[in-house]
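To: structure subgroup
Subject: Chain for Friday's discussion

All,

I'm putting the inputs and outputs inline so they're searchable in the archive.
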Amino acid sequence: MPHRLSSSSSSNSSSNSSSMPRIFKITRPLFKHRYDARPNDGAASLYVRTRPLTNKLPDLALHSGPDETFPIVAVCHMPHFSLNYKIGLGDPSAAHDAVRWEDMIKANLPGTWHTWAMDLMNPGGDITRRQFVWKHTRKVAVEGMKTSGLSPRNWKLLEDVDGEGKGEGDVLAVFTADLSRGRAGALQVNVDFGRGWENMVLITCLALYERSRR
């Protein structure tokens, strides 16, 4: 039976928003090159464009609003013949130096763990490098949902404290797949480390989902 998640964060995280956990219902309309991520707090949905196979745009582009007229805030490239990813926070079409590039790397042989890192501000105001790992899960699920043994697209996000890709501590976020037509699943974010971190969680999670779908 999947475990329900609490909204408590790890002891070294920043203070949580009163709206945490935040849950995004993610749909993938049939025959469309996009995902829609609708948060449960009433905020506007987010638009994620997927790349048609015939062009050289990023494989995924996360926009700050419900359609592609809103600014791009994160992108993902999926190199061919690799299980690694190149993630960018910002809009590459605006200026290359305005994008903070990070790598999401396969951390175990089966490819069920993927690690990534970014700079985050700690409670004292200093910038620290934090590492995280997405791990396939069959036990942890978004509140009100259950994982299905028929889907490999269920992940939990942990902090990778020792850099070995194993992860430990509280579950920071979790994605639970929905097998219904036109639906991808739900992403639950349990801690508030800032908008940039939330964008990173969204784009890395959808990168794993999109590659597994392909």
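Points worth raising on Friday:
DSSP finds one helix and twelve strands in the chain.
Residues 1-17 have pLDDT under 50 and may be disordered.

D.
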